[in-house]
Amino acid sequence: MSTSKAVAEATPSWDPYTRGCPSRDLLDRIGDKWSILVLGELGKEGACRFTQLRNRLSGVSEKMLTQTLRALERDGLVRRTVYPAVPVRVEYELTPLGVTLRAPLKALTEWSVQHLPEVLAARETYAAEHTG
Question: Using 50, 70 and 90 to split pLDDT, how confident is the model at 18?
Fold first, then answer.
C-alpha cells in the first residue's frame, strides 16, 4: 500500500453535515459572533490584555469574553500567557493555528461590509411582504 493511501485511510473523514461530527462543533466555535470578533481583533492588534479586548469589542460582557477566550484557547486558536508581575499580567494572542483563520475571517468580514446594503434591502422587502 502506498504511503499516501495509508495516510488517507488513517485520516478520518470529517463531515460537518453529519450529526455528532466534531467538525460541526468547531464550525460553531469559529462561527460564533464573539469568537469571530476576538479572532479578528487579535489578528489585527496582536497580543492584547483582557481589558484591551473588552474595550475594543463594544457590547461584550466580561463573562462572555472570558468564556470565548477559554473556548478559543481550548481549541488551540488563542494562547494565554501569564507574566509574573505585580499585579499579574495576562495577554492573549493568536496561535499559529489561529493565524490560519485570518484570511477566511477577513474575507467574511469584507463580504458582510460589501453586501450589507443588499441584505438590508432584502430585509425591508421581506418585512413589507410579511407585515399583515
Answer: confident
